[in-house]
Amino acid sequence: MSDYRIKEHPILPVPGEAVVPFTWKGQGYKARKGETIASALFANGIRIFGHHHKDGSPQGIFCANGQCAQCSVVANGLSVKSCMVPVTDGMKVEPLEGKAKLIDVDGDHRFHDVETIETECLILGGGPAGLAAAIELGKAGVNVILIDDKAALGGKLVLQTHKFFGSIEACHAGTRGMDIGKKLEAEVRTYPSVRIWTETTALAVFSDRKVGLLRGNHYFLVRPQVLFVATGAREKSLVFKGNTLPGVYGAGAFQTLVNRDLVRPTERLFIIGGGNVGLIGGYHALQAGIQVVGLCEAMDECGGYKVHKDKLVRMGVPIYTRHTIVSANGKEDVESVTIAQLDPAWKVIPGTEKTFKCDTLLVAVGLDPVDEFYRKAKEFGLPVLAGGDAEEIAEASAAMFTGKIRGTEVARMLGRDVGEVPVEWLHTAEILKARPGAVITEEIPDHEDGVFPIFHCSQEIPCNPCTSICPKGAIKIEGDDILGLPTFDETACIACEQCVAICPGLAVTLVDYRKKEDEGVVVSIPYEFNQTTIKEGDTITVLDTLGKVLGQVPVVKIRAPKFADHALLVKVKAPAEIAKLIAGIQVQAPWVTKSMEEQIQRIDDDDIVCRCERVTAGQIRKLIREGVRDLNHLKTLTRAGMGACGGKTCPNLIARVFREEGVPAPQMTPLTQRPVFMEVPLGAFAGVITGEGPTRDAAPTSVGTLEGGV
């Protein structure tokens, strides 16, 4: 029996052994306590969860976030999303295969009334924006219910093992995302007026200004005076041949498997998309011991921070800009990927195809706001604000700060005397949302004496941890905000290495000429990989910022100071001519990234646009050419947008086909979204009691919430 669990990680503690028994298609396996069905199956080497009833195509995971339904299975007789439901002792799991079992509805059933709970503010989403808003509301004494559909708060912060950019003062820059989430949660829980309900799903905003929630098996309504939507974002999909094969899934799903559940879901990985999500996903893969074969980006440059790109390149990952995916290849799951170069008209240049052997393809081509709750609340006249990615796609650091601002605004709407939002807050929020600036030539100091840091960052991004951490105050940012590049007073360095350790982009090294010998200069390099992979006396390959191999140098010392927060500081002795150019250590051998001699292109009927109903681009093009301009009409004819995900993944892809057919957006009628937005057993609306109801938090009498369980 295969075990695909991570046994060692440089940042994350490895949880206990798998002890919870369950069966898959009648065969016994074990899961870790609290592990979802999807993660448990992956951990046991199972990536195909079933086959589509329409064409028999293999099905696996895609979002691992409850937004689609591609991972659905039957668990103890009920159709469930395997990425959202934990394994229970003795659970019987089977493929859905289009025919979930029906539960016997005969016999005696107990029912409860569907309660309506009053509160001043309901927050949808316990990620960075929701938690930051709850803190401000808690300070103001506002009665709040904060819900999240996961077991742990923090949203995507839970998945982020890297250190954050931004400002230390504004958003905990220099701290790992997962630790920021814990800090925010701990502060929220100090305010008695804020109640937190995890594993609670928002289903809809209704015309009577109530919000339907499902907590456990218990359905109820909440009537807030103000609604704050901090539901985050969902990953965009992409149309290409083989795009629904098991092994093709979103970068967020990958981070969930690796960084939350410590599952090693792949041996060889290829990434589509050069934004921060894709670049960071590649780094997380390397930390988990996974080979990253390459990354392709359609634009001339990656859209993510250059320091994220540089970090990957100097660790041995090639990045193919101005390239796109042609196909994911394989019969039952991914076996290889084919990419090709794009011409100025964004068409594939014949003869430029390259095929790489891999078993997983990460799609990281952007995010869409989960804003349907916000839009419905506006439509029905419920006072509502949105924050974080539900308002505008940006970094989590920006989400924290906009959540802080929106929390203050909600408190004002509810009559609390909290004052106006400070102008400097608004200014900071705009800085944190700033897109990467222009790239300048990296400046290397000329002098070769003493000790001093080298800053290998050459792009303006919102980041200042190095200036805040320097005990001598010798590191400065050019300009009036944190978007400039750092400069340094060369005479002030005391070789404390704190700037090397705190840099989120691993873009600072320290060169020490004080004991220069014939053998070379000592250079300190940050290293966030398992200690077992490097030791004193090793000879390692060092690279410059752009990934060029500079040479091989000996490791003379390794430190793991507490202030480095799980990072190692590796000291090497390098020749003087390359010492100041060293930016990183190669962690992946060049052979890993070689393309295959045989060029493969998947041959299939057509590209899938609607993955739930297996509707192809060819079917949609045919109807567009026949005059269809309404996505609702298209839905009636093809069922596109009518599947289990509720039209969350395909409308943008359908709109793209319309654009490709020359139909301008004003001529196209968008798909109408109607409640409910998430799946719910119909019995819940009737108040069927299928188990113990949730223990209701005692509520302040001023908001009239029911006390006790149901």
- Could you give the count of β-strands? 35
What is the count of helical runs? Answer: 17
CATH superfamily of the domain at 116-233 and 369-432: FAD/NAD(P)-binding domain
What's the overall average pLDDT, rounded?
A: 89
CATH architecture of the domain at 116-233 and 369-432: 3-Layer(bba) Sandwich
Describe this structure in words.
The chain is an alpha/beta fold. Among the domains are: 106 residues, Ubiquitin-like (UB roll); 182 residues, FAD/NAD(P)-binding domain, CATH 3.50.50; 142 residues, no CATH class; 58 residues, Arc Repressor Mutant, subunit A, CATH 1.10.10. 21% of the residues lie in helices and 25% in strands. The strands form nine sheets. Strands 8, 9, 10, 11, 12, 13 and 24 form a seven-stranded mixed sheet that branches. Helix 2 packs parallel to helix 4, helix 5 runs parallel beside helix 6 and helix 9 runs antiparallel to helix 10. The longest helix has 18 residues. The radius of gyration is 26 Å and the shape is globular.
Short description:
With 710 residues, the chain is an alpha/beta fold. It is built from 17 helices and 35 strands.
Provide the fold topology.
Elements: E1 20-24, E2 27-31, H1 37-43, E3 50-51, E4 58-59, E5 72-75, E6 78-81, E7 91-95, E8 116-124, H2 128-139, E9 144-147, H3 168-171, H4 177-188, E10 194-197, E11 200-205, E12 211-215, E13 218-229, E14 233-235, E15 248-250, H5 251-260, E16 268-272, H6 276-287, E17 291-297, H7 306-313, E18 319-321, E19 323-329, E20 336-341, E21 354-357, E22 360-363, E23 367-369, H8 372-379, E24 384-386, H9 396-413, H10 423-432, E25 451-455, H11 465-469, E26 475-477, E27 486-488, H12 498-502, E28 508-517, E29 520-527, E30 539-543, E31 549-559, E32 568-574, H13 576-579, E33 584-585, E34 608-610, E35 615-616, H14 617-625, H15 631-638, H16 651-660, H17 682-686
Parallel strand pairs: 1-7, 8-9, 8-13, 9-10, 13-24, 15-22, 16-17, 16-22, 17-18
Antiparallel strand pairs: 1-2, 3-4, 5-6, 5-7, 11-12, 12-13, 14-23, 19-20, 20-21, 25-28, 26-27, 28-29, 29-32, 30-31, 30-33, 31-32, 34-35
Helix pairs in contact: 2-4, 2-9, 5-6, 6-7, 9-10
